[in-house]
Amino acid sequence: MSIRDQINTDLKQAMRSQEKQTVITIRSITAAIKQIEVDERIEVKEDRLLEILTKLAKQRNESITQFKAADRQDLVEKEMFELEIIKQYLPAPLTDEAVSVMVNDSIAALSASSMQDMGSVMADLKPKLQGRADMSKVSKLIKEKLN
Predict the structure, then answer these.
(1) Which region holds residue 121: left if phi is over 0, alpha if psi is between -120 and 50, else beta?
(2) Mind listing the domains of the chain with CATH numbers?
(3) Where are the alpha helices (DSSP H) in the chain?
(4) For residues 121 and 110, what is the distance between their CA atoms, to the nearest angstrom?
(5) pTM score
(6) What is the pLDDT of residues 70-96, one digit of tens each?
(7) Rounded to whole angstroms, how far apart are CA atoms 147 and 131?
């Protein structure tokens, strides 16, 4: 079952069981997908769907940080609930060791030796790691390895 089919199935199930907050969260996910489809006149495929879900998860994490700083526990709980639902559709995150191994393998496979090769290493890793690792951390790791 594709991620999109799973989202639709979960939405129907949440509506049947009258889980109001879950319905609202899943509808916000589908709205984000529809927005991309309308704006770009495309049908969102699995890889792009992972990018959208990753972006939504990142937004929730940033909101949680800001709400904690503002001492708004009610909003922190709401954002954490939404984040947990979004994470259900993302692939299991990789460990730091697994990411490091993949970075080393990619650098070796591409014979990357300097910072000029960073773009090609990132291009090689992005489809493999999208939704499974924080790409900013991957970027930092590549910089460390290439320097």
Answers:
(1) alpha
(2) 3-87 (1.10.1510.10), 96-146 (1.10.10.410)
(3) 3-16, 20-40, 46-69, 73-87, 96-110, 118-129, 135-146
(4) 7
(5) 0.82
(6) 999 999 999 999 999 999 999 999 999
(7) 26
